[in-house]
Design brief:
about 250 residues, Rossmann fold, 8 helices, 7 strands, about 10% strand
């Protein structure tokens, strides 16, 4: 019987991790956030989703799965109660130090998989400015895959291309942690935004009403379970293609 090609780092011992990396030198890092998600979802929503999809991705492909990073680059919620944010430079340093630590004991490729959109912008900067040509490791980054298909399948429209506490995220959470979802408080909310939104200092915190951006009332557990599988399937294919391109799979 062949050995599994995935391992949860936070639940494993040092010898187990060393043995795993010796035969499978690749890792997946879930990047989450702790921030408001309306009146019906917990502040750990992005982290819970990122961790779950990262684990399912590794099970369908390969990799050491790191514990989720619960603090994100969440400037858009700065000053909003129940929301935490790292500043840009601190987040860049965290990404750099994570990559450096993993590379120092043999990891050859890392997938920084985010459950919070703004994180990816900072990872890109870290890769270009502090990791590329400085640390011997290959980096893949971005939100989990399959989001376009989720949006096309959803029964509600998105809000200016953003997903936050609406049908998709609420459905994913109903599939993952229904005990944390208060559907009786879910709302439909499409805040008004100025024409220059996204090209000025205006952010989600300036236009929010309830903290929901879309229609959370249409969420179901069945949709969430289907979209979790979709995200994991697409992310695993994306990751494996990257690893094969670098002769690591």
């Amino acid at each position: 019987m062949s050995e599994p090609m995935f391992l949860e780092m936070g639940r494993a011992t040092r010898p187990e991790i060393e043995a795993f990396v010796a035969r499978c030198p690749v890792a997946i890092v879930p990047l989450g956030s702790t921030e408001q998600h309306g009146p019906h979802l917990p502040t750990a929503t992005d982290t819970i989703i990122a961790e779950a999809i990262a684990k399912r991705t590794a099970e369908r492909s390969m990799g050491l799965i790191l514990p989720g990073q619960p603090y994100g680059y969440a400037w858009v919620w700065k000053g909003v109660p129940a929301s935490l944010t790292m500043n840009f430079d601190s987040y860049v340093k965290m990404i750099h130090d994570t990559a450096e630590s993993l590379a120092s004991w043999g990891v050859k490729a890392i997938y920084f998989m985010s459950g919070h959109g703004a994180n990816s912008q900072v990872v890109k900067h870290a890769l270009r400015e502090t990791i590329s040509d400085k640390i011997d490791v290959k980096i893949l980054y971005g939100m989990y895959e399959g989001i376009r298909e989720m949006v096309s399948e959803a029964d509600s429209d998105d809000w200016l291309g953003d997903l936050h506490a609406e049908e998709i995220e609420t459905s994913l959470m109903l599939a993952l942690a229904p005990e944390l979802v208060q559907m009786d408080k879910a709302v439909r909310d499409y805040p008004d935004a100025p024409a220059d939104y996204g090209k000025s200092e205006e952010s989600m915190r300036h236009v929010m009403n309830t903290g929901v951006f879309g229609d959370a009332t249409l969420a179901t557990r069945e949709k969430g379970e289907r979209w979790l599988d979709l995200a994991a399937d697409r992310s695993a294919a994306f990751w494996l293609n990257f690893l094969k391109r670098h002769d690591l799979a």
